[in-house]
User: What shape does this take?
Amino acid sequence: MNTALSFNRLVTLGLWVVGGGTALFLIAPIVAIVPLSFNAEPFFTYPMPGLSLRWYEEFFASDVWQLALRNSIIVAIFATILSTILGTLAAIGLSRSDCPARATLTAILISPMIVPVVVAAVGIYYAFAAVGLLNSLTGLVLAHTVLGAPFVVVTVTAALSGFDQNLMRAAASLGAQPVEAVFRIMLPLIAPGVASGALFAFVTSFDEVVVALFIAGSEERTLPRQMWSGVRETLSPTIAAVATLLIIFSTLFLATIQWLQRRAERQKLTQFE
Amino acid sequence: MAMVLSDETVKTAIDTAALTRRLRLLRRRSQVKALLLVAPLMIFLVSVFVLPIGVLLTRSIDNSDVSRALPTTAAALATWNGRDVPGEPLFAALAADLKASSREDVAEVAKRLNNYESGIRSSLLKTARNIRNAQAPFQAAFIDVDARWANPERWSVFKQAMPKMTDFYLLAALDLQRSEMGQITGVTPKNAVHLDVLLRTFAVSLSVTILCVLTGYPLAALMARSKGWVANALLILVLLPFWTSLLVRTSAWVVLLQSRGVVNSGLIWLGLIDAAQPLDLIYNRIGVLIAMTHILLPFMVLPIYSVMKSIPPVYLRAASSLGAPPFSTFWRVYLPMSMPGVSAGGLLVFILALGYYITPALVGGPRDQMVSYFIAYYANQVTNWGMAAALSAILLVAVLILYAIYNRLIGIDRLRIG
Assistant: This one.
């Protein structure tokens, strides 16, 4: 008994050392880069000689970075709207009890999540060159919609699997038209799923760099595309400032997603009461 | 009586048939409704994603450029025996084709032919320039520009390049080629670069997967054992990097691992290494493995964690109460029960790693670039669509096979996000 107890204590200790070490490894780069963005000198070493906001000033004053930020926001918003509408419609179709060939259709619809992004990027580049969509924000929106829509399909399908289809029958029996029932019964109930799908689509577009490398010209540079050049050419602490802003953004994103998931779970619980 | 009964039977039969038909019609209508809802995204995906990739893949076997630009030569070559120096008609045919072709077409043909014999490109371009104003006899005019036109080997290159389809690129992607006799042989060592890239892609992905299992399993076990705020905090430590931009994480590693970066300056400050000799942690395999393991680790931890959470603790207590020592409890009960999570995470990490491009490009050296890098290189830098398509085809097939296995073992519908 005594040996088992000490063995257990050893296992706990070992788990904390290895597992805790891994957790630190996961968070270390994120934690390390944030303070460097406030460094007064253009170096990436600690201890820092002084603090300043000059790299943030540089980011907000630079035309190139501001253009990239604006492009990223515009493309992400439009790609999110398109993916959310197309993805939600498709998920509703797939969730109907008599949807034919559901497995095949789902496999095709989520294939952009599976196909290596370089293959997709080269294919899209080749096709867009033929129809004149290279070097345009429209082309970027279309390509990012392809990459974002599968996330909407997956999250909305998951939300619909917890949706009681009898509610739609009840609505119909009370005289609601099908479209009315979708907007007044189904959509409010699956809204958390739609919202998290939309967030995923937004982040997918906002974070996407490979397709942008292929099909965007210098006028359509997005934020990740500009970071790619920044890291490759002159690694200045402006990169650390941009990275810090993006880390704040993803923290907010994570918090929103968690909140949406909690809400969806609460909703599921109240449905049973 | 018998008559009445059969009348009734007939009537019921008709009713049943009508009802069945009506039901089938309703069902059909409902199916069409479902398909109409799926259609907009499906049409969009097919036109912007599926078809473009399909068209790209056909480029890996497409060879119509040469025969389209040189139709007369193609016809004349059909009658050539393949051994002797061809006669005037073949020279005249090529001269006619070159005169009729645009500069761009000739350049494309020259590039294609250069795949078979290096050096033929410049020779053909030079000949095409000179032959535009030349008169018959063309045989003498060709040989006058470049004596190599008198070699039968030169013409067998043309003959090899004429078919509309070619396995040249797919073979080249595996460092193979066809000899003049049509047999498949290895390419010269100087040109044998692709197999090395494919093996490297496999090796890097496998190493990253193993590193992820070794570090991810203990972390997942720790998370599964923890309760309350500790469990929450650990989950956030896994999820925050998961949702942080790939480029942010990769550039963070560049900043950390540089020769004058955070890790090296920290080690120097601690006195562990000499300031004059910082460790080489970046632009090599070590950098690639560190950064890729970091980025893919959450894909390993989350599936293992969700499986571990579902293992009832009573099983472990049962094993102990039946006299199993703690280690065999782990080895014979806990590990086998958590294996589905390991295989799901491992397969996912491996599949994702195969297609990695950005991270190796930013933190790796020239010898650490994976197949995606070369696809991008062939498409963007040298515009060799055939090679880009052939490598894409190989990568795509590998990934699709692995996904089919994943689907079989775990189910693609369990491909969860968040």
Summary: Chain A has a mean pLDDT of 90. Residues 2-36 of chain A form the longest helix (35 residues). Residues 1-33 of chain A form one domain. Residues 192 and 263 of chain A are 7 Å apart (CA to CA).
